[in-house]
Amino acid sequence: MNFPARRLLGAIKRSSIATAADIATAADNLFYRPFRNEAVTRTGRHFAKSSLSLPVHQTSKPDENPLRTYFNAHRQGPGIFKWDHYFDVYHRHFSKFRGRKVTVLEIGIWSGGSLLMWRDYFGADCTIYGVDIKSECLVYENAFTHILIGDQADPRFWAKAKQNLPRLDVVIDDGGHTYAQQRTTLECLLPHMSPGGVYVCEDVHGAENRFATFSFGIVNALNEAKLITYADASEKQLVSKTSGLQAAIKAICFYPYIITIELQDAAVSQLIAPKHGTEWSF
Ligand SMILES: C[S@@+](CC[C@H](N)C(=O)[O-])C[C@H]1O[C@@H](n2cnc3c(N)ncnc32)[C@H](O)[C@@H]1O
């Protein structure tokens, strides 16, 4: 008998396991748990690359996205540089803020065009903060746009900046695009956001960028389910008390090259699964 099989048998004997499901769980714990995340990530990647064929329409719908319309019409003046599919991501997550009094911060100014685009999209009541490492970007400061100069990878820069920054509704990280920069910026700014806020990290693609993997770690924490119980003896509703993270984060969305994190409008103290109906099959 080989070593893992002997360990499995020992575990079964020690815990007086009876059913096939229990044996499968014990085997899973013994053989797969230590390397589960890496192995499963590899399996998902293999599935995506080798066997995934999904139906898609051959022609796209007419353009109804005000950001894309703005961008496509913008042929002169301060430059904007965005992946086209980001406009769909932005509009999906940002449209709830349009016309409201919102505070928007974008890291990565470059030629100032995107700051003007946000102003046009969110409306006259928005306040915009632009952050860049290059002091040349100070020229984009105006009545509704504030410019901060600093290194997004430096927590001390953010600690100082936050002393004067209001809570943020929208953060767009379009800065240097390295993992260290993206991670530090998220760690420093996510706690400084308003309820309902939307955080966007752009350009997470490429083998050397680990921000998506870092974000999977947050997703794993979001999926932890330690305290699931029935609400009462009638067993009509499952209840799971939320962690601090689950109370505050509504969704983390992964798109090609870009990730969004949306905060809850109000703290969620529990997740519930009620049962409706009177007939149950088994
Ligand atoms: C891709 S460009 C921004 C494009 C702009 N948002 C647009 O849509 O046109 C990236 C910008 O990030 C800035 N940047 C690079 N590293 C940075 C860092 N460590 N901290 C802050 N800004 C940085 C660069 O100076 C550059 O202006």
Sum up the structure in keywords.
2 domains; globular; 282 residues; binds S-adenosylmethionine; Rossmann fold; seven-stranded mixed sheet
Give an account of the 3D structure.
The chain has 282 residues and is an alpha/beta fold. It has two domains: 3-50, no CATH class; 66-274, Vaccinia Virus protein VP39 (Rossmann fold, 3-Layer(aba) Sandwich). Helices cover 37% and strands 21% of the residues. It is built from ten helices and ten strands. The chain has helices at residues 3-15, 20-32, 36-50, 66-73, 86-94, 113-122, 155-162, 179-189, 211-222, 244-248; strands at 103-107, 127-132, 145-149, 168-173, 193-202, 228-230, 237-241, 249-255, 258-263, 270-274. The strands form two sheets. A seven-stranded mixed beta sheet has the order 3-2-1-4-5-9-8, sandwiched between helices. Helix 1 (3-15) crosses helix 2, helix 4 (66-73) packs across helix 6 (113-122) and helix 7 (155-162) runs parallel beside helix 8 (179-189). The longest helix is centred in the first third of the chain and has 15 residues, at 36-50. It is globular. 22% of the residues are buried. The mean pLDDT is 90. Bound molecules: S-adenosylmethionine.
Oligomer: single chain
Order of helices and strands: HHHHHEHEEHEHEHEEHEEE
- Indicate the low-confidence ranges by residue numbers: none
Portion in strands: 15-25%
Give the overall shape, derived from the CA principal axes: globular
* Major β-sheet profile: 7 strands, mixed
> How large is the radius of gyration?
24 Å
What would you call the structural class? alpha/beta
Q: What small-molecule ligands were found?
A: S-adenosylmethionine
Name of the CATH homologous superfamily of the largest domain:
Vaccinia Virus protein VP39
End-to-end Cα distance: 39 Å
Question: Helix proportion of residues, in percent?
Answer: 25-40%
The count of β-strands is: 10
The CATH architecture of the largest domain? 3-Layer(aba) Sandwich
- Number of H/I helices: 10
For the biggest β-sheet, the strand order reads: 3-2-1-4-5-9-8
> How many domains make up the coordinates?
2
Report the top-level CATH class of the largest domain: Alpha Beta
CATH topology description of the largest domain: Rossmann fold
Mean pLDDT metric:
90
